[in-house]
Design goal:
This protein is of the alpha/beta class and 417 residues long. It is built from twelve helices and 21 strands. The structure holds pyridoxal-5'-phosphate (PLP).
Length: 417
């Protein structure tokens, strides 16, 4: 069982902070995302505490959870944002993040997205290819601006994680090949509308072993030294995100302090501001997905199923990454049995748990799918004609609806008929 300060049982009842989850489901219906504001704040503070010994700037990677209220919670703490598209940039600005605290990533930025970010004045654009640098230079020239850019390098470090979330390997599309960098530095001098302010990397997500960060940072620092010998004065070294969280109590994440212990002494002598882009670390364990059991069924080979009212349209991670999420009964039972927890979508990949020991809850009762703060609500879809779920945030006893449930009308609103 994944117990935390924010989602815990009192007696047989699961709560978020000081509110019973049962009460939230009654008020807002299910499926429902429930986020603890205090958990967000505590994660941010623990991250900041771990890296306090290093001049740094933390940019929350909003792709993990871009609900405006989540963004605003971090913005109010002084955090910046890492965005990956014009849409995320718009969201970050709407969420109250100052443009000069926003960094813009993405392997395929369109001209209009580049122009948008230059007009609002983001801190930097992270370029991932020579062609993109040329595009940024051209667009900045057209706008009469100087673009601050960072070069995202591909350090060719294969971090051990799910293959879909490793990004620092030469087989992948991300970043500029380290071998190409000397040439890129030379060509940069001819791009008069660019100012090189940073070097950047992001080697993947949910990385348990700090040594992968160490190996990539060694390469980043070598390129930083090269940039100095070539006459550039880079102000920022961006280490990316990827710090791990615990989804499965049997596989606890490496504490953030273990990463800081390795990285702070390596980076301190560079004398620059280090940028971090944590996403998952800040939000994953701050939310649960509440879902109601529609039907219990079993078949002739003895398999048992809970069919619930949420599915892969609300949480695609188990289907996409074979990821583990704890599933807990909102009202505890003394008896348990082994079952699959499955959704209503017409796909066999539509499950939250397989052959898992679950409390013997009845039809109509609630289950909480845990650790649903990152890459969960943001990946929800309308497949099978589903309505994206509502989202609430809880702070102590205070409850706020931060995203309304979609309506049938919204399902067809953009179609011309
Ligand atoms: C460029 C970049 N930065 C940061 C992140 C955040 O990663 P994580 O959520 O693992 O911290 C990602 C995630 O894919 C990313 O692509």
């Amino acid at each position: 069982m994944l117990d935390s300060n924010y989602f815990y049982y009192t007696g047989a009842t699961l709560n978020c902070d000081e509110v019973r989850l049962e009460e939230l489901a009654g008020t807002f219906g299910t499926p429902l995302y429930v986020t603890s504001t205090r958990s967000l704040v505590d994660s941010y503070n623990s991250f900041e505490h771990a890296f306090a010994g290093l001049p740094h700037f933390t940019c929350y990677s909003v792709k993990a959870n871009y609900n405006l209220s989540v963004i605003r919670t971090f913005a109010e703490l002084g955090c910046g944002c890492d965005v990956n598209s014009g849409g995320e940039l718009f969201r970050a600005l709407q969420g109250g993040v100052a443009p000069e605290k926003i960094i813009f990533a993405g392997v395929g930025k369109k001209s209009e997205e580049i122009a948008y970010s230059l007009k609002v004045g983001v801190l930097m654009l992270k370029a991932e290819s020579l062609s993109e640098l040329r595009a940024i230079d051209r667009i900045a020239g057209e706008l009469g601006k100087t673009a601050s850019v960072a070069l995202r390098i591909n350090p060719n470090v294969t971090a051990e994680t799910h293959p879909y979330i490793t990004t620092g390997d030469s087989k992948e599309k991300f970043g500029i090949d380290e071998a190409e960098l000397p040439e890129v530095f030379t060509l940069l001098r001819q791009m008069s509308n660019l100012r090189l302010v940073g070097l950047d990397m992001h080697i993947g997500s949910q990385i348990f072993d700090p040594e992968y960060f160490v190996a990539a940072t060694v390469k980043l620092l070598a390129l930083f030294n090269l940039s100095k010998t070539m006459g550039f004065s880079v102000e920022f070294l961006d280490i990316g995100g990827g710090f791990p969280v615990t989804y499965d109590p049997l596989k606890p994440a490496t504490p953030i302090e273990r990463f800081a212990e390795k990285l702070v002494p390596m980076l301190l002598p560079a004398g620059v501001t280090v940028i971090f882009e944590p996403g998952r670390y800040l939000v994953a364990n701050a939310s649960v997905l509440l879902t109601r059991i529609l039907y219990k069924k079993h078949n002739h080979v003895g398999k048992k199923f809970f069919v619930v009212d949420a599915g892969m349209t609300e949480l695609i991670r188990p289907a996409l990454y074979q990821s583990h999420h704890e599933v807990q009964a909102v009202t505890r039972h003394d008896e348990t049995f082994v079952a699959d927890v499955v959704g209503p979508i017409c796909e066999s990949s539509d499950f939250f748990a397989r052959q898992r020991e679950i409390d013997a809850a009845e039809e109509g009762e609630l289950l909480a799918v845990m650790s649903c703060g990152a890459y969960a609500a943001v990946m929800s879809s309308n497949y099978n004609g589903r309505l994206r779920p509502a989202e609430v945030m809880v702070n102590g006893r205070d409850v706020k609806l931060v995203r309304k449930r979609e309506t049938l009308e919204q399902l067809v609103q953009n179609e011309l008929f």
